[in-house]
């Protein structure tokens, strides 16, 4: 297995028009060092007040190959950044606000357990400083991000009666048996088995032809709500969310896991597995807006974008727009 390593983001991706009347997200990007993980109990990292968001990528699609998917997601973090940093930024509340871009974790071989053990504590540490966005890579990194999110929550809110929330937007359930081998289809079975009763979990946008009835029943036995694409088509996205989250707290910390194949193929052709059916842009944006108002989102992961399979960069641009939506609404709310 190859060793775990991280590659800094090329500053050439930090696009700027050098025009104070036309800010782009690239104008607010920085390339900070990723400090070593502190092993001293109680020695928490000092918050970086200049960095309002953190960002890193997973340039790795081994988990997709292990799940018999089509490769290409290893190229997504760089390509998504290329479009995101060109997008127009809003008028920001502070001139020193910035996005701390920590670069990409590179392909590390088929043993996902190494990534979970090594990267998730670092993610928990970064979440101490600011909300984070992660760019896959395969959805196997949903286990890495989920573990880091839960660890961060347990380190900071152990006395809270609330549990952290993970919301997975996905055509698939991604709860294949992980004991047969970790891959892009196992992130949430791994999390549910390793952190039982430690977090709330909701699946949104699943499609019948992408989801085993056995996996569906396994989640139902664990009392996991599943909002299927068919149900959303019947009642609408926002009524479905209001029904599922009725009576829950707006203070609940949330990690949104967005597998790009939840979109229909005409919107996101560049992914490991895309289908004609799927959510549209308005449904996803309204869902994220609603969650921003009704939960406290601290982590967004976007997975399975595959630039080599894309058409006119449609899928990478879509992912960039999801980043823009999240940061813009979070930053200016």
Which descriptors apply to this entry?
333 residues; alpha/beta; Arginase, Chain A; 10 helices; 10 strands; 33% helix
How is this structure best described in words?
The protein has helices at residues 62-66, 76-84, 112-127, 141-156, 187-194, 213-221, 229-235, 237-244, 281-294, 314-332; strands spanning 6-7, 29-30, 51-59, 98-106, 132-135, 165-169, 200-206, 226-228, 253-259, 296-303. The protein is an alpha/beta fold and 333 residues long. It has a single domain, classed as Arginase, Chain A. Strands 1, 2, 3, 4, 5, 6, 7, 8, 9 and 10 form a ten-stranded mixed sheet that branches. α3 (112-127) runs parallel beside α4 and α4 (141-156) packs parallel to α5 (187-194). The radius of gyration is 19 Å and the shape is globular. The relative contact order is 0.16.
Strand content: 15-25%
* Total number of beta strands: 10
Percent helix range: 25-40%
Number of domains: 1
Average pLDDT number = 91
* CATH architectural type: 3-Layer(aba) Sandwich
What CATH first level would be assigned? Alpha Beta
Order of helices and strands: EEEHHEHEHEHEHEHHEHEH
Uncertain regions spanning at least 5 consecutive residues: 38-49
Number of helices: 10
- The CATH topology name reads Arginase, Chain A
Structural class: alpha/beta
Major β-sheet, in short? 10 strands, mixed
Radius of gyration: 19 Å
Distance between the termini: 44 Å
CATH superfamily: Ureohydrolase domain
Q: Specify the overall morphology.
A: globular
């Amino acid at each position: 297995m190859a060793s775990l390593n991280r590659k800094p983001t090329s500053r050439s991706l930090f696009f700027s028009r050098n025009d104070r009347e036309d800010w782009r997200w690239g104008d607010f990007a920085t390339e900070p060092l990723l400090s070593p993980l502190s092993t001293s109990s109680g020695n928490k990292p000092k918050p970086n007040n200049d960095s309002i968001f953190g960002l890193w990528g997973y340039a790795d699609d081994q988990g997709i190959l292990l799940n018999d998917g089509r490769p290409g997601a290893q190229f997504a973090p760089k390509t998504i950044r290329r479009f995101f940093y060109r997008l127009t930024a809003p008028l920001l509340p502070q001139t020193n606000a910035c996005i701390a871009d920590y670069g990409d974790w590179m392909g590390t071989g088929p043993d996902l357990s190494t990534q979970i053990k090594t990267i998730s504590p670092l993610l928990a540490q970064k979440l101490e400083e600011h909300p984070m966005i992660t760019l896959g890579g395969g959805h196997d990194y949903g286990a890495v991000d989920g573990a880091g999110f839960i660890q961060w929550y347990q380190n900071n809110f152990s006395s809270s009666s609330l549990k952290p929330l993970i919301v997975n937007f996905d055509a698939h359930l991604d709860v294949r048996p992980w004991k047969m081998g970790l891959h892009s289809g196992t992130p949430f079975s791994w999390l549910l088995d390793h952190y039982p009763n430690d977090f709330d979990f909701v699946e949104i946008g699943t499609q019948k032809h992408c989801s085993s009835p056995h996996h569906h029943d396994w989640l139902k036995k664990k009392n996991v709500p599943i909002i299927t694409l068919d149900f959303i088509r019947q009642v609408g996205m926002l009524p479905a969310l209001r029904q599922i989250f009725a009576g829950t707290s707006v203070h609940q910390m949330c990690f949104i896991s967005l597998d790009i194949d939840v979109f229909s193929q005409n919107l996101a052709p560049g992914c490991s597995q895309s289908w004609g059916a799927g959510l549209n842009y308005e449904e996803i944006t309204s869902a994220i807006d609603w969650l921003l108002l009704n939960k406290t989102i601290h982590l967004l992961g976007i997975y399975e974008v595959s630039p080599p399979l894309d058409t006119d960069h449609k899928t990478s641009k879509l992912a960039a727009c999801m980043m823009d939506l999240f940061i813009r609404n979070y930053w200016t709310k």
